Amino acid sequence: MKTQGIFRFSFGPWNIHEGADPFGPAVRASIPFKKKLQLYKRLGFGAVQLHDDDAVPELNQLTSAQIIRKAQALRHSLEDHGLQAEFVAPRLWEDPRTIDGGYTSNDPKCREYAMERSRRCIDIANALGTDLIVLWLAREGAYVREAKDSRVAVDRLAAAINDMLGHDQKIRIAIEAKPNEPMDHTYIPTTGHAVGLAQLTVSPERVGINIESAHAILAGLDPSDEMGYALAFNKLWTVHLNDQNGLKFDQDKTFGAVDLRRAFNQVRILDRYGYGRHGEWVGLDVKAMRTQKIDDSTRHLSNSREIFLALLNISRGLDERKMQTMIANRNYEALEGYIVRVLMGRH
C-alpha cells in the first residue's frame, strides 16, 4: 500500500441548480450565490469551484480593473465563510462567439475573444488566490469532421494554452477531457489525449489533468484507470467525482449511485497514491435529480461525500495480505468475491 491520501472536498455553485436538463426547463427556484456559500461548511466542504463568471458576473461588460476589484471582494467573502477558491474555469461555451468553438473556431476574431476571456480568467484566479485553471474544452470539436482540420485544431489548442501560460508564469492549467457533448466529436476526448497535448506546450510541467468520472464513462473507460494514468505522470491535479447511468447525456449523478464498485476503485486509487497530500481537493460535480424539492436540494452533495468517506473506510479496512496472496496465486475469482462481499458488508 502506498501513502494514504488526505481528503478535503469542494463543489461548484452550479451543483445547487434549478433542475433544468437537456429536455426540460428549470423546475426549482434559484438560490442566491451568497446563500450557497453559507451551505459549504455546513455540508462538510472547504473550497469553491468557480467559473470566471460565477466569480465576476457579466465580466464581458467590465474593465480589467473592475474585474479584479470584484474578484478581490469575492475572495474576502469566501474567507469570511472559512472557504477558499479551488480553481477558476473560463466559461467559453455559452457566448455566441464560441458557437463553433473558442480556441479552434474557424473565425480568428472568435479565437481572439476566447483568448482574451481566458486571460481575464487567469487574472480572476490570481485575485482569488488560486493558481489553478480548469480547462473544459467544451466546444473544441466539430459536428462535421470536414468542417475543421484536426491537426490545425490541436496546434491551435496548444497555442492557446501557451498564451495562457505566458500570461502568468505561476498559473497551472488542468485539462478536463470529454469525448462528446455538446459537440459530436471533440479533439481532446480522454486523459491520454490531454497528457499528450500538455507535451506540445512550452511548459508541460504546468499542464495537468482534471478527471470527471462521467466523462471517462462516456468515453467507454473506467474512471479509476484514467486516474491511474494521470497519477503515473504526476498530473492529477483535481477530480470531478460523480456517476453516470449509461452512454447518454452527462448526468452528473450522485457519486457511487449507479456503480458502487466503480466508485470504490476511484476512491481506492486516489487513497493508494496519496492524492490530496499536495493540496489537491476532491471535487464533486453532481446535480440533484430534477424531481428533488428545493427544501432538500443539497442532499446529492452530502450523499456523495458520505459515500466517498464510507468507501474510503472500506478500502482502508481491506486485508491487503489476503489480497496479495490471491493475486500471487492468480486466483482472481477469489479476489473478486472478496471485494464484492466486502462491498456488501459481508466480511
Give a description of the structure:
It is a single chain. The chain has helices spanning 33-43, 52-55, 64-80, 108-128, 150-167, 191-198, 213-218, 223-232, 260-272, 299-316, 320-328, 332-343; strands at residues 9-11, 47-51, 84-89, 132-136, 141-142, 172-176, 185-186, 207-212, 236-241, 282-284. By secondary structure, the protein is of the alpha/beta class. The chain has 2 domains: 9-316, Divalent-metal-dependent TIM barrel enzymes (TIM Barrel, Alpha-Beta Barrel); 319-347, no CATH class. The strands form 2 sheets. The chain has an 8-stranded parallel beta sheet. Helix 1 links the parallel strand 1 (9-11) and strand 2 (47-51). Helix 3 runs parallel beside helix 4, helix 4 runs parallel beside helix 5 and helix 8 runs parallel beside helix 9. The mean pLDDT is 97.
Strand order of the largest sheet: 3-2-1-10-9-8-6-4
The dominant shape is globular
Structural class: alpha/beta
Question: What's the domain count?
Answer: 2
What name does the CATH topology of the largest domain carry?
TIM Barrel
Distance between the termini: 20 Å
* Name of the CATH homologous superfamily of the largest domain: Divalent-metal-dependent TIM barrel enzymes
- Radius of gyration (CA) equals 20 Å
Please give the largest β-sheet.
8 strands, parallel
Helical content, roughly? 40-55%
Return the CATH class of the largest domain. Alpha Beta
**Count of helical segments?**
12
Order of helices and strands: EHEHHEHEEHEEHEHHEHEHHH
* Share in β-strands: 5-15%
Number of strands: 10
Overall pLDDT confidence? 97
What CATH architecture label of the largest domain applies? Alpha-Beta Barrel
Detail the poorly predicted runs: none
